[in-house]
Design brief:
Structural class: alpha+beta
Helix content: 10-25%
Largest sheet: 11 strands, mixed
Strand order of the largest sheet: 1-4-5-7-6-8-9-12-13-16-17
Strand content: 25-35%
Number of helices: 13
Distance between the termini: 37 Å
Number of strands: 28
């Protein structure tokens, strides 16, 4: 959900291009000291001169971002230089306050090409956001969307209600409501009212609108496709927060994403602008010390924030969370839609594929498209040739983010907003890691050229593609899960989510060997592969397990284990002084997910597990497109904690885990089964 755009990373300050235009009667002003103004003016003069020089000399340029804030509060991991087209196109910047139907006014930044041919009209590209739009300038659109900026669009960036320069009250993931009166507003009505104003007041538009955005902005983009304004001709929800209880930001299959929710809600609801949550202590120790989320929220004085109250009082999938979910509103394809997501998205991996699946049921005109790549949250906005940090990483051998923007995103909008050829995606494009190449499919998950298979857990830490033949009741593994010593989800110390230097952004590619030796982690491996094996599509786990307690969490990870003699490869690091990293023995998570046992039968009505009873737990690890290379090994790991990203399950059933007493947290024995009667396995499709 974190901001991944470049609005706060700019070479040309917003004030260098700000002025009160003839159709901007509501300018936003800021005051600064005289000394600061003089310095800013000198800087603006210099930067304008550089931009003018670029316009006069159309050569290939490269701009290196200064500090790109992922916002609410973090820097993008090692943002590389972004090559621009041969000619930068200058844009004129104006601001306006746009009236909504209920009288609230929303702040917007409008960027129009400075030079137009006589009679030229352009479509709008609209990005609505809760993260602030002051930083968007001519420079940022040229850097972040070079192909589209060079082609020419009217870029509009708008603060949603209650955020930054906009009036009104902010509501997290504001639900859609019946539109019976002018006071019945939501993000669909605000989008429509925004477009009405733009069409009437911004000169030189061609009457067409495209809407795009990443993360929270992706949620706002899909809103533009629900009860869509007639002028909306294309939308691109990218890493959209689609259902924050089922599989996106705040819960996954009922397991509460504690440290993320703790940080993000404070940043979004404690003030009108973003303020990072930064702690000098290991957050693993912090949450362990405060026992449960209620204790942590009390320590942070955040219990009065609206979403924190929902966490504390409505941990199940109640109507409150259901109303926020998007999928049930996707009952038709109103406009062409390009869904975009990353296989290692630490925040909103689920939403992209969920929205695509929901829309595809109604896609009679073949106007729903999907692009999946080797990215973390919003990673496609950068060159995206590498992903990782000093705890592990992979190099894809090509700038996958640049390729996405050039071959998919820009042609998509060019086709539907300007009637230009070039967008030739039939349905889905996916970057297959391991062999590192783009693939195109007629559907996702693809079926042509693939066959479904099962990978079974076996005793003695083994995996097999053959179903078990041992006697019923055979045990694959057992361990004791102790809430007093939960398995960490990333290397300690664990920083606040968006704190400077946080490893949050790339934790999904961290080398998993740091937990493999734990006694509460059950590991299973195949023999070393004698040929390449490609897994494409959804990975599903079907786990037969029992606990001596009355509640439990299950975490399953599908891992690519590199051989010990794997060569060195360049990796990202947090410091130029960090040593190079060997990929020898590297354990790369390819797919992973958690399931909270109390929701075995119903997400709305949790119930205790029967101690000692063997239950079947089946859930999705989401999509993957990965080749396990010859000489590598496939590993599956099962564990019962992923702390503190996910709160500890006390393993004793209580009505509300958010306030579970300390006495409820008890060690329990976990048993995983591997027999004809209880065949624990993973299901996926492999290339023929």
């Amino acid at each position: 959900m974190a901001r991944t755009g470049g609005s706060t990373s700019r070479a040309l300050p917003a004030r260098c291009l700000r002025y009160k235009g003839p159709w901007n009667p509501y300018p936003v002003t800021r005051t600064r000291s005289s000394l600061h103004s003089v310095a800013l003016s000198l800087r603006c003069i210099l930067l304008r001169a550089l931009v003018l020089l670029a316009l006069l000399h159309p050569v290939t340029l490269t701009l290196r971002a200064q500090q790109t804030v992922l916002s609410p509060a973090g820097t993008a991991p090692d943002l590389s230089a972004v090559p621009l087209p041969g000619r930068l196109r200058a844009y004129t910047r104006e601001e306006a306050m746009l009236p909504m139907r209920d009288g609230v006014r929303l702040h917007a930044v409008i960027l129009r090409p400075t030079e137009l041919t006589p009679g030229e009209t352009l479509p709008f590209l609209l990005n609505r956001t809760p993260y602030g739009v002051d930083g968007f300038t001519s420079d940022t659109v040229n850097r972040d969307m070079p192909e589209l900026a060079a082609s020419g669009y009217i870029f509009v960036y708008e603060d949603i209600r209650g955020r930054y320069g906009s009036q009104g009250t902010f509501v997290m993931n504001r639900p859609i409501v019946p539109h019976n009166t002018p006071n019945d507003v939501d993000e669909t009505t605000d989008t429509g009212d925004t477009i009405d104003w733009l069409l009437e007041n911004v000169p030189g538009n061609n009457g067409r609108v495209g809407v795009f955005g990443v993360s929270y902005d992706g949620f706002l983009a899909i809103m533009a496709g629900i009860d869509a304004h007639p002028a909306v001709k294309a939308i691109s929800p990218q890493a959209p927060m689609t259902d924050v209880w089922m599989g996106d930001d705040f819960f996954h299959n009922g397991a509460f994403r504690q440290s993320y929710g703790f940080d993000y809600v404070q940043q979004m609801e404690a003030q009108k602008t973003d303020a990072r949550v930064v702690s000098r202590q290991d957050m693993y120790s912090f949450f362990l010390r405060h026992v449960n989320f209620a204790g942590a929220a009390k320590a942070a004085h955040m219990g009065n924030l609206p979403t924190a109250q929902a966490f504390l009082t409505q941990p199940a999938y109640t109507p409150f969370w259901q109303a926020m979910a998007v999928e049930d509103n996707l009952d038709k394809v109103a406009v062409p839609t390009l869904e975009v997501g990353g296989f290692w998205d630490q925040e909103d991996m689920w939403g992209t594929q969920a929205e695509y699946a929901a829309l595809k049921k109604h896609d009679a005109k073949h106007e729903v498209f999907l692009v999946l790549g080797p990215w973390n949250h919003g990673g496609w906005q950068y060159a995206a040739q590498q992903l990782g940090s000093q705890f592990g990483g992979i190099d894809f051998g090509q700038p996958t983010g640049t390729e996405f923007r050039k071959h998919f995103e820009a042609p998509f909008f060019e086709k539907y907003l300007k009637d230009r050829p070039g967008f030739d995606l039939a349905d889905t494009a996916s970057f297959r890691t391991g062999v590192n190449q783009w693939e195109r499919y007629d559907a996702w998950p693809p079926t042509a050229g693939f066959v479904s298979t099962r990978l079974y857990l076996e005793p003695d830490s083994r995996l097999s593609f053959a179903p078990p033949t041992t006697a019923d009741g055979a045990i694959a593994a057992s361990y004791v899960a102790n809430p007093a010593d939960p398995a960490p989800y990333r290397h300690r110390p664990i920083q606040s989510t968006y704190a400077p230097g946080s490893k949050w952004y790339t934790w999904l590619v961290e080398d998993q060997s740091f937990v493999t030796a734990r006694k509460d982690v059950a590991s299973f491996t195949l023999p070393t592969l004698d040929r390449d094996l490609t897994i494409t599509g959804e990975v599903t786990v079907d786990l037969f397990a029992a606990t001596t307690g009355s509640d439990a969490d299950w975490v399953v990870k599908l891992i690519d284990v590199y051989p010990d003699d794997s060569p060195m490869q360049p990796q990202r690091s947090d410091s130029p002084r960090s040593p190079p990293i060997s990929s020898a023995g590297y354990q790369l998570m390819v797919a992973s997910e958690i399931f909270r046992g109390r929701y075995l039968h119903s997400f709305q009505q949790p119930a205790p597990l029967t101690p000692g009873a063997v239950d079947e737990f089946r859930w999705s690890l989401h999509g993957a497109d990965h080749t396990f290379l010859k000489g590598h090994t496939i590993m599956v790991e099962v564990q019962s904690s992923w702390f503190p990203l996910y709160d500890r399950n006390p393993q004793t059933f209580v009505a509300n885990i958010m306030s579970a007493p300390k006495s409820a947290y008890r060690p329990e024995a976990i048993t995983l089964y591997a027999s004809p009667q209880y065949p624990s396995h993973l299901e996926f499709s492999v290339a023929r």
